[in-house]
Amino acid sequence: MVYLTKPSKGWLQEYCVDTAVAVIVDGNVSLRIDTQHLRDVHFRLGSFYQFIGELVIQPDNNAILQARVGRNVDGLDLNLYNQSLQLRRQFEADHMSRHKTT
Amino acid sequence: MDRYVHVKLLNSFIVSLSKTPDYRFALSNGKRVSLVETVGVVVGRERKDKFLRFHLDDGSALLPCILWLNHLYLSPSPSPRDELLFTMAVEQAEEVALGKLMTVRGRITEYRGVKQITVSNLRVEENPNAEILHWLQCIKLGKESYNLRPPLTSNS
């Protein structure tokens, strides 16, 4: 099963050179990332990364993100990001409700 | 809205612009928009001889962008200005790479019924917080300058 995903962000906890599978963590949540299609992304443990791709649910019910795009986002203010994301979603929801009523 | 101002918008707002009878574009409140600025991650890139097409993802919508590289084909004898514009456009095209966070400015156009930006200039954002700044600027300008307010309730 494949899902298109919104960007996934997290700290790089593991990276296997042989399989090109990385594990990122954010709080108590971790996600495996298949990075075999990525070029020009240098992996450094402890750095913060963003990936965009397809989320695949494997037969054993484990999820893996097949990344199409990845980038290092060291320096991102995560608290500000999360607060701003909530504001942005609220703003979009307000606009869409206006759009529907006009 | 001043037609020479680049209006800062989220991609979801750009793709939902409506077309006006004079073939321009308008926000949901009727304000006309010609030029826009957005920030997002490059998630697709297709280079041809005469143009570069790429897709910008800002988390709200996917926006096609086109950067023309046809300056030397527009006349049989290109002027020095055409050559300069072509050189600048090629330099900009080389900066567009998958995974880069970019600020893109340009004119809203439509191709096969899909909104896109015809790029006038772009830059790579090295600071990942540039994306957050753009969101907050879009919200502030939307509320205070573009008048994109939520609908008033009947008892307010």
UniProtKB/TrEMBL annotation, chain A:
GO cellular component, one term: CST complex
GO BP field: negative regulation of telomere maintenance via telomerase
GO MF assignments: single-stranded DNA binding; telomerase inhibitor activity; telomeric DNA binding
Organism annotation: Amborella trichopoda
Protein name listed in UniProt: CST complex subunit TEN1
Extent of the signal sequence: none
TrEMBL record, chain B:
Domain OB: 37-124
InterPro entries for this protein: NA-bd_OB-fold (IPR012340), NA-bd_OB_tRNA (IPR004365), RFA2-like (IPR040260)
Gene3D superfamilies in the record: Nucleic acid-binding proteins
Subcellular compartments: Chromosome, Telomere; Nucleus
Record key words, sorted: Chromosome, DNA-binding, Nucleus, Telomere
Pfam families given in the database record: tRNA_anti-codon
MF terms (GO), sorted A to Z: telomeric DNA binding
Keyword Oxidoreductase set for record: no
Domain of life: Eukaryota
Assigned GO CC terms: chromosome, telomeric region; nucleus
Name by which UniProt lists this protein: CST complex subunit STN1
The species this protein was found in: Amborella trichopoda
Lineage of the species this protein comes from: Eukaryota, Viridiplantae, Streptophyta, Embryophyta, Tracheophyta
